[in-house]
Amino acid sequence: xxxxxxSYLKFYATHNFLLNKRxxxxxxxxxxxxxxxxxxxxxxxxLRNVYNSNSFYKKLYDNYGVNIHSIKSIDDxxxxxxxxxxxxxxxxxxxxxGRGFLxxxxxxSGTTGSPLVVYRDYDSILNEHxxxxxxxxNSGLNPKDRKISIRGDLNRxxxxxxxxxxxxxxxxxxxxxxxxxxxIIPIIREFSPKAALGYPSSLYTIASWxxxxxxxxxxxLSFTSSESLLAFQEEIINKTLNTKLFDWYxxxxxxxxxxxxxxxxxxxxxxxxxEYEKDRVITTSLINNYFPLIRYxxxxxxxxxxKYDFNKKSIIIGGIDGRVEDYVLLPDGTRIGRLDVVxxxxxxxxxxxxIQKDKFTVDIRLVPLPTYSKNDELLLIKNLKxxxxxxxxxxxxxxxxxxxxxxxxxxxxLVISKINRIYSISS
Length: 427
What we know:
Layout: H1 2-14, H2 17-31, H3 35-53, H4 55-64, H5 85-90, H6 92-95, E1 104-107, E2 117-120, H7 122-138, E3 147-151, E4 160-163, E5 168-172, H8 178-191, E6 195-198, H9 200-212, E7 221-225, H10 231-241, E8 244-250, E9 257-261, E10 264-266, E11 272-276, E12 281-285, E13 296-298, E14 301-309, E15 314-321, E16 328-329, E17 335-336, E18 349-358, E19 361-368, H11 374-388, E20 393-398, E21 415-417
C-alpha cells in the first residue's frame, strides 16, 4: 500500500498542470516570430544573474578578465571561459545558486570512471520533463499510455515491476538473459504497450532474442536514450518490435539535448546554447538556474552539418558519436551494458576501464587518487556484483593513466570486450 501511494505521489509531482504549462510554453516558442530575441534575452538575464549573485562565476570571470558589460548577445559568448569537468568536481557547492526547492543531488554517468556531482531543483527537473514529454507527445505517446521501460531502474533480483501510477511495466536491463527474456515476452504481450522506453542495448537484446526465436512483438513506438543508437540495433529493433524508433540525446548535467526525427537530430528550443567543435561541444544550459553551467565542455563528438532547418529553428545534426560501448557477456549469456553506474559514489578514482578477455573474468583497471582506499574497492565490487552477479570473477587492477586503452582515433571506452564481440566498431 505504502509503495503504491509513494509511486502515485512521485508520478504526479512531475506530471501535473505545471508540466502541461511548460509543454505549452515550448510549443509557443516554435510558433514565435521572435525566438532569437527570446533566446538572447534568456541568456543575458542568466549571465547577469550569476555574475551578480554567484561567487564562483564572479571570481572566474574577474580572474579571466571578462568585462560582463561587453557581453551584449549570444554572439559574444566566446568571450567567456570554458568550464571543464574539473571545475565542477572542485566547486559543486559554489556553483549552486540560492536555496532551491526540493533539490536533488545527481551524478554524471562518469565516462572516465570518475562521476561528477550535479544538482537540480524542482524547477529544473520539471523543465527537463517538459522537454522530454513535448518530444514524446509530438511523436504520439502520452504520459498515461501503457509503456514498458527497460533501463537501470531495477536490479538483477527484480526482473519486472508494474507501476500503476505511470502505467509503466519496468523491466530490469540487468536481467536480460535468454531464460528471463523467455518469461518476460508473454508478460509484455499481455500488457500490450503503446511504447517501449530504454537503452538501445536493452531494446536490442530483446529484439535479438525475438529474431533468434522467430518471434515478434507489436509495439508502435520506441524511445531510446543514454547510449549511442547504432544502425544495426535500429534495424533489428524496428523489425522485431514492429515499431517506429525515436532517440533522445542528453547528458546528466542537463546542458544539451537533441531529438531525432527522420534520421537527423535537432535542438529543442530554449533548452541550451551549443557551440559545436571538432572533438567537443561547448554547452550552456538554459533550463537549470539552480546549478547554472555556462560554456561547459562536453566531450562527445557530434556531427554538425552546418545546415539549418527553418521550420524547426534548429541547426541539423547528422549523428552523435562518443557513446559507443561494448557489453560485458556473463557465463549464462546475459549481455550487460551501461556499467558506468557502478562507479557512482566512487569519488577516489581518476579513471577506470572494464576489460573482458573471457566469459568468466573481468579486469577493472583503476587509476586511483591519493585518497583511494580498500573501502573504495569494496564498494566497487559490491556495485559490480549487483549488476553482474557472482558467476564472473572480478579483478581490480590499479594502473596509471598510460595503461588505459584508447582506440586508434584516440577514443576512450569504459567497457572493452575482447571475446566473441557482439558487434564491431570502426574507429
